[in-house]
# Entry
Amino acid sequence: MEILKERHEVINFSPGPAKLPCQVLMQAQKDLTNYNGTGVSVMELSHRSQDFNKILTAAENDLRDLLDIPENYKVLFLQGGGTGQFSAVPCNLLNLKPGQTADYLVTGCWSAKAAKEAEKYGKVNYVFPKQNSYTNIPDQSEWNLNPEASYVYYCDNETVHGVEFQFIPETNGVPLVCDMSSNILTRKFDVSKFGVIFGGAQKNIGCAGCTVVIIREDLIGKQMSNTPTVFCYKTQVGNNSLYNTPPTYSIYIMGLVFRWKKEHGGVKAMEENSRQKSEMIYDIIDNSSGFFCCPVNKKCRSRTNVPFRIGNPDSHDVLEKKFIDMAAEQGMIQLKGHRSVGGIRVSLYNAVTVAETKLLAEFMKDFLAKHRN
Ligand code: PMP
# Structure
């Protein structure tokens, strides 16, 4: 029980790798030295063993249940992170149409990086002009989609800038590719609207090391001839993610997290918690008369990463440092904004509870009362 006692003194608002449910860590602690009576650690299981196969199959089935993934979609568990998929996506999909062009919606640094990577392999059409700051999603009437594109790419939730789509883009039949690294499993959505969905595990689905990729079957097999084999969807699908050694421990943790989510009301409950937690923090920001300031347009504010500044430009640095230090004294950690934007960022992934978020909300109210002029 030591692990529980120590952890109760800390609330981890990290953007990722992020908090894992305590129940998952307790189970992992048990399985660390002797998995399911096998006498070996879960980390020591061969990826070709029956025991690991059960772990892999259960993880896939539970994810299929949680997201209601249709039969004509394949699920892969790969290495290489979200960044690996920035290359894998163009390698596997640019060939779908002769022009080898892809549409990219750039709404923050992660979609910008993905677009830049795709430029190595083909033509990238930027669907709207570069934003001065990533705080908005231009209205769909201003989008310049190319009907001949092989795919349309976007990032559902920009983790650094806190910009989240509240709708699924309409692409008129062009396959839609989505990076859901930081909001997958936080709300219900229709998988059948997508060609490819991917997400790194280290925020909402487990520990770092594994990337989930969900692919519509008919898009598989058109990869460029120089596609690295580990990133070839066809090869990995044909080998059930076991072409090379998969991140076995990450897949195991992921399986525990999926089970935890199912036991805790599934995606519907995660969505409701996500709404409650983010509204709690945005309400304080919006009722602080500008003391706390979130620069993101209300129509596309993220439910999982809430960025804000404190005070005015002259007092930002002092007040934000004080906020971070005082929060840490109360056990609330990892609240510093990304180095490229500064300020504060509160990450509210599924393992962060409503009760923990309430404690932060109380702290924010108290800080506001003490520091506003
Ligand atoms: N996409 C998003 C939305 C992310 O937040 C991140 C990482 N934080 C990445 C991609 C890159 O993932 P990785 O570091 O696993 O390559």
In short: DSSP finds ten helices and 14 strands in the chain. The longest strand covers residues 73-78. The chain has a mean pLDDT of 96.
